[in-house]
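Long-time lurker, first post.

We've been arguing in lab meeting about whether zinc ion would sit comfortably in this protein at all. Half the group thinks yes, half thinks no, and nobody has a model to point at. So I'm putting the question to the forum: if I give you the sequence and the SMILES, can you give me back a predicted structure of the complex? Inputs are below. Any interpretation is welcome too.
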Amino acid sequence: MNKTLLFGLLIIFTNCKILIAQTVDLSSVDEFFKVTSILKAGKSVTNEQWDSFDNSAAYRKYALRENQTFIEIIKSSLNIAYGKDSINERNNILNITKEEMIKNTTMLLKKRILINYIEVDNHYDSILIFRQTFDFNALIENAKQRLSSFIGMQIDSTTKLKPIYFFFVDADGGAKDDGLYIDFNLFFKQTDKQRINFLAHEFFHDFREKFENHDFNYKCDLYYILDMIQNEGIADMIDKSEGYKKYFSDVGESDEMVEIWVNLYNQAPSDLEKLQNEIVKYARKEISETEMIDELIEIVKFNGHHIGFYMANQILDAGYESEMLDTFYNPYWFYVLYNKSAKLLNLFQLSDEFMDYLRSITKGYYH
Ligand SMILES: [Zn+2]
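Top reply:
Settle the argument with this. Predicted structure of the protein with zinc ion, as tokens:
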């Protein structure tokens, strides 16, 4: 590796603290810049450098997985976006259609990650400066305040929230068991208000965990899905209250992703009905658990955001917002409140049979 380049990188990366108040970790962002600087200079990345990349806080999560698909997509996307000799591969991935993306998660990720990496390349220096100058501590405080006022509960400095790991992947963020994992390019593109709302959304998941019934959520896939719909639905009220179209357009999502989300939202009532029907068939023992889960996975694409957000919006419209927020960790009440709202608003209502089944499975855990 070129010594001047190495020296330059060293100055860049030792000048900025990687850990800020032990809450924000940027080591994977820094590794990304190291690897891409090398590729942009037309050099090849050494095994040692890839090891360092793999061991950085956020990428490590994926590098350690037995299934290497995700980390391999990340690395090949880096080579395609920043290496000079992958024009054919680049075009093949960029030509993946919307239909292929909906059907096949690997293809969806390949295209989304590559688009994101190409975008980072277009704003490379600005993102690097942003990384060095942004006040992360102020943002965290503002996001805590935002969540506090949304949920109507005090979230002060004594409330311990998970660390935030920034990295470059696809334009998204998620709450995992050990931390919040957020795409740094998405974060860069957002306005301050969007960043606060986005982080408050992720903090909501983290904060909710302190109230959830873990035994219920992790008992089986069905319970996990039922809970996830409430969890994402209410969280979307924090950052997507103006609707998916505005939110995803504002953060610079491609037209086809905006369309995918808008279509999902529009079909939420029929997806909710399908979800109910599959669960009722299972409750009647007409289908096996595996058959039901296979069907549900198809219906709750992208973690069931669209169904939960649709339900939460109807609850809001019907005037039950405070009841929804009082029971923000109790999935049973979310479905009850949705049904009360649907009755009031003349919308699709979940059947008594479904609600009886839901009551029976949540009885030992909630109410
Ligand atoms: Zn979420």
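For your lab meeting: Residues 306 and 319 are 20 Å apart (CA to CA). Residues 1-22 have pLDDT under 50 and may be disordered. Whichever side wins, do check it experimentally.
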